[in-house]
Amino acid sequence: MDSHAVTKTDYKSYTGAFTLLHLTHLQPVQVSHLSFTSTHGALPEGPHGSGKSPTAIVMLNMGGPSTVSETHDFLKNLFLDNDLIPLPFQSIIAPLIARRRTPKIEQQYTDIGGGSPILRYTQLQGERMAAILDELHPSTAPHKSYVAFRYAKPLTDATAQQLKADGVTRAVAFTQYPQYSCSTTGSSLNELYRKGKTGAFGDGVEWSVIDRWGTHPGFIEAVAQNIERALAKFPESTRADAVLLFSAHSLPMSVVNRGDPYVLEVSATVAAVMERLKHTNPYRLVWQSQVGPSAWMGMQTGEALKGLARLGRKQVVLVPIAFTSDHIETLYELDLEYAREAREHGMDVHRAESLNESPVFIRALADMASAHLKDITTGKSGPTSIQMALRCPGCTNATCGQQKTWFARGGR
Ligand SMILES: C=CC1=C(C)c2cc3[nH]c(cc4nc(cc5[nH]c(cc1n2)c(C)c5CCC(=O)O)C(CCC(=O)O)=C4C)c(C)c3C=C
Ligand code: FES
Ligand SMILES: [Fe+2]
Q1: Domain 55-214+359-409 belongs to what topology?
Q2: How far apart are the CA of 249 and the centre of ligand 3, in A?
Q3: Contacts with 272 (C-beta within 8 Å, 6 or more apart), sequence order
Q4: CATH assignment of 217-351?
Q5: Signal sequence: where (predicted)?
Q6: pTM attached to this predicted model
Q7: Which of the ligands is closest to the CA of residue 398?
């Protein structure tokens, strides 16, 4: 998001005044509308009624400001998150950075139509998934989807109240980040754990976790179909020359270097998509949306586009690969900044659509949840994946360890 904050200092410089100066010059973003309860069908009765309480499928994501005026609170929550951005005196500095950054990010959300569509898409995906899930796995029906965002409404507290009111006794924490990073899914699980251990969701909720699914065949198929649709926009004579430029949100090198699995898992997604496409086109994986002055995973998407133009590779399909709905990075950074700039360099650029309302993708979500519930209820697997139990070798965050233990015991 921030094109001029690329000094090659270590991410540790986030912890200095130097960083603060840079961060306050970062550009703001913005997003939009939506309500935030999510149900499909009528509310099943809770513990005090005669009906069966629902199996909760809690869709975890970062969220975004639904309206431009929510931008400041979104940024404040984001900069307060120690799992994402460790800052000294965080509770004092985070609001200052958020305040300084708000106007720029507000303008970006205005430019993409007045806010982030992430809540609308997450609700839609969740509701349609739950309806399919009732058919795929009737023994745990009714299923009801809930949304728990890390930085925007509905925050975990509000979602917890909903589960409590519905008398939920079985809940699945379903990350909506396909690939696992401790700064994304890890942060959401830490927050869920902090609330869960104080009883915010009610007593006796049995938790399990779907923590990553970057190579699920249904997800891969949905992405591949969107790439094929984008490729079809090129004249047949140049189609085979088009470069598939997969673009994922970058990570600070300090996070990569403590052993975070995200870079590997995004790479695995890309490899699976290319297998499915039978390698009809050349491709690269590049990284976008660096924030602040520290070193981040590269090559940067914007630089890659310029490099391809210089090399005469002027047909490009941009493929967002680490987020399942449109957001500021696709609608602003990819569409308004990079694609426009690339066209000015004489390039022919098309973006693969985000998964948004893709029925193939929604079916994949239902398949994942169904397989998970089947494995849990038949005792074939425990509440968490084998991979989730392993902390990053460089992890010094005690909450990560406590969170993993808590979920491995089913939230007890
Ligand atoms: C898989 C996706 C994402 C990863 C990994 C990720 C890591 C990460 N992000 C920041 C800092 C910021 N991210 C911001 C916005 C933002 N981040 C993602 C996704 C990932 N972030 C998205 C989709 C968005 C946009 C939300 C939307 O449009 O709805 C922002 C705020 C915007 C800004 O101020 O520029 C910041 C800040 C860090 C530090 C980090 C890894 C440690
Ligand atoms: S930072 Fe990865 S497990 Fe703690
Ligand atoms: Fe981010």
Answers
A1: Rossmann fold (3.40.50)
A2: 7
A3: 214, 215, 220
A4: 3.40.50.1400
A5: none
A6: 0.89
A7: 2
